């Protein structure tokens, strides 16, 4: 079957390790099911995998891709929850949880096999392309907002780095949930898009906000950390799920954190129940993933280049 896979690790030039070509179709295994992929979406996780983060040379070649929607062996339209081993379904009792492409072959292929427990019905209201955007970036944003920040309608939120998959998801979900959303971006066009998507206002990074916010959604890391901490009201919550600009800010702002009793919460992905809730939320409210571009799988390299260059707003989707 045709697939996009990591053939080697290159920490400096990750796309050097990306190959498009034939790979063996997945073999049947007890408790697992094979999904015929209709659409899959890119995440920064895929670039990090090509750099060797979470993926070792001993696991190569590895088909990339965490997210997918398609049809199961009975023809049902489904979405894949990409965290494997979260509850022990389909894996050994002592196996730690992992994301597709870390231990098991991913979704950038004609077929992917996962534990049967990891397959969810796709709402009829969502296209395959839309549904394929949800299991990583959108699930991450959903958990950050509603589980870890615990925001409620009427609360205020700052989303750093508008344009990335998690950030655009947080803006759209926040607007649909009745939040007052502010956003930042270095790019004027992305700031305009953020407002069109639902942000009340969008600012350059580091700008003073009209008010201190209840929560900050942080995926940028070092470059925005100080601004994120300073933008919180006393007792507010900073939720971080990534650090695309680096993990080591110049100032940790510890004095402000303890004096104002701020909460800093790490967040990674989400669980199956949250993905079910997210699918229902999108179906019921009409909120849809922001899709930057849709490419056939044999043009996957273009999508990777677009993501690596930061030249996107929303998700890149690959279709099979």
Count of DSSP H/I helices: 9
Spatial extent as radius of gyration: 19 Å
By DSSP, the count of extended strands is: 18
Terminal residue distance: 11 Å
Mean pLDDT: 95
Class of secondary structure makeup: alpha/beta
Q: What amount of the residues lies in strands?
A: 25-35%
Query: Which bin fits the share of residues in helices?
Result: 25-40%
Order of helices and strands: EEEHEEEEEEEHHEHEHEEHEHEHEHE
Main sheet specs: 7 strands, mixed
Uncertain runs are: none
Q: What characteristic shape results from the CA principal axes? A: globular
Structure description:
The protein has 320 residues and is of the alpha/beta class. Helices cover 26% and strands 26% of the residues. α3 (134-148) packs across α8 (272-285). It is globular. The model has no long low-confidence stretch (mean pLDDT 95).
What is the compact description of this entry?
With 320 residues, the protein is an alpha/beta fold. It contains 9 helices and 18 strands.
List its salient traits.
six-stranded parallel sheet
Write the layout of secondary structure elements.
Layout: E1 2-6, E2 18-22, E3 32-41, H1 44-50, E4 62-63, E5 69-71, E6 77-80, E7 83-84, E8 98-99, E9 111-115, E10 119-121, H2 128-131, H3 134-148, E11 156-159, H4 165-176, E12 180-184, H5 188-197, E13 201-203, E14 213-218, H6 225-230, E15 232-240, H7 254-259, E16 263-266, H8 272-285, E17 291-296, H9 300-308, E18 315-319
Parallel strand pairs: 11-12, 11-14, 12-13, 14-15, 15-16, 17-18
Antiparallel strand pairs: 1-2, 1-4, 3-5, 3-9, 3-18, 5-6, 6-10, 7-8
Helix pairs in contact: 3-4, 3-8
